[in-house]
Specification:
By secondary structure, the protein is an alpha/beta fold. Helices cover 37% and strands 17% of the residues. The chain has 2 domains: 5-116 and 192-257, Alpha/Beta hydrolase fold, catalytic domain (Rossmann fold), CATH 3.40.50.1820; 120-183, no CATH class. α9 (218-224) links the parallel β8 (202-207) and β9. It is globular, with a radius of gyration of 18 Å. It starts with a strand and ends with a helix.
Length: 258
Amino acid sequence: MKLFYREFGDKNNPVLIVLHGLFGMSDNWVSIAKILSQNRFVIVPDLRNHGNSPHSDDFDYSLMTQDILELLELKQLKDVEIIGHSMGGKLAMNIALNYPEKVNKLIVADMSMKEGELRDIHATILNTIARTDLAIFRTYAEIEAWFDTFIDKKKVVLFALKNIKKDENDHFSWKLNYYSLFQNTHKIMEQVVGFEPFTKPTLFIRGGDSDYITDEDIPEIMEWFPYAEIKTIEGASHWVHADNPKVFMEMVIKFLSK
């Protein structure tokens, strides 16, 4: 599948791929990508069924991995650095473990290897999207007020509403393929599986207020990523890059500069 992507910086610099999480898109990472583009050529794709990329009934990490490999082939890239957050973190680990020759450095933002469960906040977003008939709304404000009745965190509401666009007839529609995401949530939560450890520099950044990477997860991480560093941003939730972008960027830049 040919993905939509944004790119920033000088193509002669080392290449950095940024992979967003569930319900995300490349647009969420533009400000970070612009900073990193000072000494990296940054490519931020919309994963399948997200943002401006094509929709498909089929959705799993194997297919998403092939999508990224197709993008690397299109851009004639071989040795890249990857940052992945949440679902994008699992995707990044899958790529690194199964195609280590493609990856030079790996950064995983708040995601472990273990099989997980759909969190309440993600289930609420998905269920709210499913019960929303965009045809009855005339303004974004009306849609926002509707979402406010189901989701009590304004940041989450605004994050979800980034998935709305207006079509050529000035009608609202969804960017993401919520039906496929709903049907394949069990695949999004799958365990990360590899054939042999990834023996290149790796950084895991976890949120101090998040339980996506627990102390109990660290032995498995170190088994499969033996050169991994594990850093914590205190006070940050699962969205570590949004809660404390300054510290997140400091960690990323320091790691990439080694």
